[in-house]
Amino acid sequence: MTEQLRVGVIGTGGMGGRHARNIDAQTPGARLTAVMDIDADRAAEVAEPAGAAVFTDGHDLIGAGSVDAVIIASPDATHAELAAACLDAGKPALVEKPLATDLTGAAGVVEAEAKRGRRLLQVGLMRHYDPQHVAVKEAVDRGDIGRPLMFRGWHRNPPEARPPTSEEVLVNAAVHDIYSARWLLGDEVSEVFVRGTTINPERTDQWDLQLMTLTMAGGAIATVEVNKDSGFGYEVGVEMSGSRGMVSTAPHHTPVIRREGQMRQSVEPDWLERFATAYVIEVQAWVASVLHDRPEGPTAWDGYLTLAAALAGAMSIETGVPVPVETPDRPPIYG
Ligand code: ISE
Q1: Dist. CA 159 → ligand 1 center (Å)
Q2: Whose CA is nearest to atom 12 of ligand 1?
Q3: Separation of 270 CA from ligand 1 center, angstroms?
Q4: Which residue is closest in CA terms to ligand 1's atom 9?
């Protein structure tokens, strides 16, 4: 591997654009050499400051000689196919979540990586790099709350131009919370039950608010509240109860302004602002792990299991009952 990792970014929407800029400006061991988007103008805008090449086909970027490693941040439904192409080309990739939008696609990627016998993929379940989540994980691991028994997560999204369906919200957004519950409780999901409610009573095909209950294999419980459109901005946090105490993410820390009979505190508008630091730490850790050939962070296996639980949630909405989640035998490359 070269001393400077030459990175190509596929997809230059909000997330891909942010990753590209973080690689270019905040990651000393890496250089942005290629950018792909079907919108060539948007790709050119992101590529220009770094002098990176512009592609309009993801597979061409993956095959390019000027690219050592790839970040996949294209639309969700393209992730699995592009991740498989990176495995075929033997190029490490940071794949945005979800790993796939259907379980067969996710299983195919896991199987292909396991067959290679070596991890090449990291999945963008980036709560793993958020300092506030990491502080909670450290407290749990130190035994500060005793035995962890219950996880509570809240995930309130800003309004979106195209309202996603209930299933899309679970697959695109709740996979983060499912990851957090598994990571912080140190256990796998065995059953999912989802109830929802809607702002517009005439529209019953999409839940605006979903409450997911996860039963973990060892008996712990997790609840996750996912709000499709909070009406006020973006907010994500977690709280854990244990046999000896509780720990939660620290509250938002912007100043509290008192004026004209009111106390006010601003709310972050979206995930790009709330998790700005986490995204930088994530790409820096990924680049270092590739340069030192020491894979770390969320795996394709995590991508598969979080998707399995999210899709069980979608099935639970449809059937109105709890849906079991199977955890297959963990391939040895995932430790
Ligand atoms: C988005 O794609 C993200 O990854 C954010 O972290 C998440 O909060 C949001 O709901 C997703 O749409």
Answers
A1: 12
A2: 173
A3: 8
A4: 173
Tens digit of pLDDT per residue, the chain (335 long)?
558 999 999 999 999 999 999 999 999 999 999 999 999 999 999 999 999 999 999 999 999 999 999 999 999 999 999 999 999 999 999 999 999 999 999 999 999 999 999 999 999 999 999 999 999 999 999 999 999 999 999 999 998 777 789 999 999 999 999 999 999 999 999 999 999 998 877 777 788 999 999 999 999 999 999 999 999 999 999 999 999 999 999 987 789 999 999 999 999 999 999 999 999 999 999 999 999 999 999 999 999 999 999 999 999 999 999 999 999 999 999 98
In the chain, domain spans: 5-126+277-299, 128-274+308-324
Whole-structure pTM value: 0.97
| Residue closest by Cα to atom 6 of ligand 1 | 271
Topology of domain 128-274+308-324, CATH: Dihydrodipicolinate Reductase; domain 2 (3.30.360)
Atom of ligand 1 nearest to the CA of 164: 12
Cα angle 204-170-241, degrees, rounded to a multiple of 5 = 110
Which residue is it, tokens 């996603």?
164
Cα(278) to centroid(ligand 1), Å? 13
The reply to whether CATH 3.30.420.10 applies to domain 5-126+277-299 is no
